[in-house]
Amino acid sequence: GLKTGIVGLPNVGKSTMFNALCENAKAQAANFPFCTIEPNVGIVAVPDSRLALLSNISGSLKTVPTSVEFVDIAGLVKGASKGEGLGNQFLANIRECDSIVQVVRCFEDGDVIHVAGKVDPVDDIDVINFELALADITQIEKRLDRLKKTKSAGKVGEEAKRNEVEAGALQRIMAALESNKPARSVALNEEEEELVRGLYLLTAKPMVYAANVAEDDLAAPDANKHVVALRQKAEEEGSGVVVVSAQVEAELNGLDAEEAAEYLGALGVEEGGLKSLIRSTYQQLGLLTYFTTGEKETRAWTIREGFTAPQAAGVIHTDFEKGFIRAETVGYADFVAAGGYSAAKEKGQLRLEGKEYVVKEGDVMLFRFNV
Ligand code: GDP
Q1: What span, in angstroms and rounded, lies between the C-alpha atoms of 34 and 28?
Q2: Angle, nearest 10°, between helix axes 121-152 and 158-178?
Q3: Range of 275's domain?
């Protein structure tokens, strides 16, 4: 599955947010094993209002959302890249993730100690991002060294050419890191990207900042100067910001629907920010959703941008990909407007797509395959 690591300084609200994500998932999905699978790993449903509508049209017995996995990575502190704290272990955990949510403390609370003694999200981000960058620099130096050695060993031909391209890309990334920019800010072509991928650079991963605000700030977060400073910083480096209140989310999980609505109403908001956090993580990862729907179940599936129909089928089962014949496909809006498969077919909106078809966001698909 796709993993998102939750990082941030100690005491910014990571665990509170992680627990809220998991509790919320448990409460929502009685017929699906969304839960904490390890103390610090949880599977969370991606909220999607289209699912209920599809399920209704098809009269499905079951509705299954798609999911992302969250990992609470505690303990990233100043000096982590030098092995301080349990530094290296934490960095290794982040390396395995596909994207990063960095929780940033934007709430003031005298009872909750801040490791640096004051609330300053831009400073906090710099500390974390510096550690991630140092880890990448170490990684790149090692790799460049090795590439240099193979070069002086007199390698020629295709491999030498590839090494040349890789070294060039790594030098550009190095220059970015040294001027305080993440690896993801460096434009790479397809070949370079593929050559560099094996290093699993931490600052190349998509990142979303989660501004953890006090409940009173949820309705008008930009009245909080910390949020404003964070937004500006994020914009400079091309990352997203989501405003969330971990504490509000934690409290919501103990309430029934009516109480929750009342509480949110009193705060002047419709939700505590968890849903937009999940959705925005999904988008930052370049993920798309397609649907399968029928009497048995309606289900959302996650694919990457650019997946062909057989690759998309392979997400359901590898046999679907191997034996792929064609996909009967209709866009979500057409499916809903027509009121189902057969109606869409009568209107000539059901397309027979073959092996080359690139799946689009919201496609409703029925796969035909050989077993
Ligand atoms: P972590 O070290 O980043 O995982 O932080 P925790 O989730 O353990 O939170 C540290 C402390 O901050 C706990 O006492 C939380 O109850 C508190 N906390 C977390 N989020 C908020 C918030 O939005 N507002 C306030 N006032 N306290 C919070």
Answers
A1: 9
A2: 150
A3: 3-115+206-284
270 token code pair: 């419709």
Residue type, 315: V
Which tens digits make up the pLDDT trace of 263-304? 999 999 988 888 888 888 888 778 899 999 999 999 999 998
Q: Which of 12, 15, 16, 22 to mutate to test the pocket of ligand 1 (most atoms within 8 A of CB)?
A: 16
For residue 220, being part of any structural domain is answered with yes
Strand positions, DSSP E, 87-239: 99-105, 207-212
How far apart are the C-alpha atoms of 209 and 137, rounded to whole Å? 22
ipTM above 0.90, yes or no: yes
For residue 65, is it within any domain? Answer: yes
If one counts every other C-beta atom within 10 angstroms of the C-beta of residue 112, the result is 12
Q: Which two tokens stand for residue 181?
A: 């920019």
Q: Which of 21, 114, 212, 247 to mutate to test the pocket of ligand 1 (most atoms within 8 A of CB)?
A: 247
